[in-house]
Amino acid sequence: MKRFAEALQIDQSADPFNICNSSTKCSNSLKDDARKDLKFVSEVEEEMKNLVELASKGKQTKRSHCFPPMNREHRKIIHELAEVYGIESVSYDSEPKRNVVITAVRGKSVCPNTTLTALIEREAAVRPPPPIPHIKQQSNKTGNGSSWHKPMQEKPMIDYFDVQD
Asked: What is the pLDDT of residues 76-108, one digit of tens each?
């Protein structure tokens, strides 16, 4: 396999799908910003994923994408996500036309195993409540007037293996 990779001039350390990017974790502020605008984060992550794939598979070692002008919060999200993906990011122009250009570099830029969008969606998933254990109600022997407690009658248990001839 190693010879095959060398023959095709493939850098095995640059495979964006098998590298765990655990050294770079999303900050709490990035997670909070993502919760506020998950659709935007999802679109940015999709663009970054495509850019990393193009840089790793294409003839060119670098691929760039220019985002349209946007507000400061969105630019901040792009810069922080770029760090997670190992992508270079630079802001250009002055307000209100300030925008971000990201550049993926083969061997440096990688796709994380889990996207921030998937992480936020998993955290937001509603978990079912734990099951409520069934407790037998005891009859009210003190006679304090509670009428909703009805005594439970115990039914005899049938043992189907206890066959008498």
From this structure: 999 999 998 999 999 988 888 899 999 998 888
What count of residues does the chain have?
165
Per-residue pLDDT tens over the stretch 8-46: 555 544 434 333 333 346 777 888 888 888 899 989 999
Which two tokens mark 13? 């350390």
CA–CA separation, 141 vs 78, rounded Å? 68
